[in-house]
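Bug report (template v2)

What were you trying to do?
Predict the complex of my protein with S-adenosylmethionine.

What happened?
Run completed; filing so the output is reviewed.

Input:
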Amino acid sequence: MDKVHVPVLLKESLNALNINPTSFYIDCTLGDGGHSIEILRRLNSEGLLLSIDQDRYAIDFVKRYYKDEIKSNWHIVESNFAKLDEILLRYERKPDGILIDLGLSSRQLEKSHNRGFSYLKEEEPLDMRMSMNLEVKAKDLLLGLTEKELTTLFRKYGEERYANRIAKEIKKNITDIDTVGDLTRLVYRVVPAAHQSSKNPSRRVFQALRIAVNDELNSLKKVLDISFKFLNSKGRICVISFHSLEDRIVKDYFNSLAVSGEGVLLSKEVIAPTEEEAEINPRSASAKLRIIEKI
Ligand SMILES: C[S@@+](CC[C@H](N)C(=O)[O-])C[C@H]1O[C@@H](n2cnc3c(N)ncnc32)[C@H](O)[C@@H]1O
């Protein structure tokens, strides 16, 4: 039996979307379909839901798992959400609400199809591609980037304090690094024990590599721009982010729309999970929801 991803801030994001049964909604990050299915259940036959994911394993899972609930008004598309404008050319309607729930689902971490997303899966190769259409894997970055470039990458995308030491050690031992375990053991060796928190010291390096392999921050900037451009007046964009680099992009973009008078911030204070949600689902603990409404 598959262990399904628990949707984060579900009640809050459904409230934020303010669903009208006849309107058009887009879930840019289908994942295991937790948010999508709840949106779909609130629509009638005139309403439309478009769900997107770049991971074909996620799409296959949802099509199997929800096979009895898939109706003609639920469109599921395999694509990077950065190409939302191309997808929307096929539609005559403008969306009334767009949800973006960033990162990976817990099932991708646990059942990665050998892509090494999690630093706990020691035997898996250093791949990290969410989409099989991408060509560059995490290991290719370790091989192809110079020590200086790797340092910048770990610093910029991982906010890693020991970026230089880790990069140096990687380049020195590159022929011995193939699996997740090879990299995590190297990081353990390099990061001074005194500075190791209760969290795994490799998590920042893994975050940085994943962001780079999937060009995550640029995709986010693109989808925000496209979403706002295509959105109906009074339509809303809701973004759930999980680390400060993503949240900063969302915050700055939404603030700029509020300042220019094109949008109204519906989340002046960021919306975070309740203590109860964070306890039941520890993965939700770092989640932040921001909402903007188009004038
Ligand atoms: C946190 S999960 C979404 C979970 C989902 N809301 C649920 O409740 O089941 C994020 C999903 O977004 C997908 N994803 C991340 N970046 C993407 C991108 N640039 N384009 C399309 N899908 C993306 C991932 O493959 C993953 O399946």
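What did the reviewer find?
The pocket of S-adenosylmethionine is lined by residues 5, 7, 29, 31-35, 52-55, 58, 80-82, 101, 103-105, 108, 130, 219 (CB under 6 Å). The chain has 13 helices and seven strands.
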